[in-house]
Design a protein that fits this description.
By secondary structure, the chain is mainly α. Helix content is about 50%, strand content about 0%. The chain has a domain of about 30 residues. The radius of gyration is 26 Å and the shape is elongated.
Amino acid sequence: MHIDEGKKFDKRNIERNIKNGVITLKDYQAYLAKLPDVSEKIFNPDEDELTSDEQETSSKKESSSSLKDGKKKTVKGK
């Protein structure tokens, strides 16, 4: 059976590959140890809410300032 090297450690196949002897548990653990730490990229919903609130506040300021200047927002349609 042909095993694609790029998919040997794919999480959808890992149990089957260990069971079939394609890789060992030790190989898998070594693979996991080599992966980079990306914990700083984790989603934090609290940070996202702050960002959304800041965006709403700045967009409200922009729209109110453009109305004060006498400018109208135009939307191009089809």
